[in-house]
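so my prof wants the structure for this chain in the tokens format not the other one, which i didnt know existed until like an hour ago. anyway here's the sequence
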Amino acid sequence: MDQRSSSPDQRPVPADDFTDPMRSIGYLCRINFRLFASELQSRLASHGVSSGQWRSLRVLWEEDDITQRELSERVGAKEATTVPMIRSLEKSGFIVRREDPHDRRKVRIVLTPKARALRKKLMPYVAEVNRLATTDIDPEELEITRRVLATIWHNLSGQERG
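here's what i got, hopefully its the right format
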């Protein structure tokens, strides 16, 4: 039997364990992410918010007045990808760009009152989609799922465990 192991202290994993996509954690995460995103986007569209804008707004609602680079890092995108998103947010009236008072080379991204007001309208959609997705799943199993997914994130992102 063809086996592989990612480190000597782990048990060997048969190479064919993940040939069925429905047994692959990566595949299952990907298709579920796409379904979550589609459900959420169908709700956001009526407010003129794209999925890319959504990711930036979520970050900015938690921490406003950050640099373009900080926004890129928090959204998990390259700065080259963030520039058109910032233009889109600005064109939609969701943000303004300001020169950093301490470093003129930096641009700070600041939410407008219009974008701040959207938070109360849009965040309930997150709960709605999560409730839809988790219907008929035991709360204990959901907590296990959250812990497992967080551990996968730590394993793959190189984040220090706390």
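also thought this was worth mentioning. The helical segments are 25-44, 51-62, 68-75, 79-91, 113-133, 139-157.
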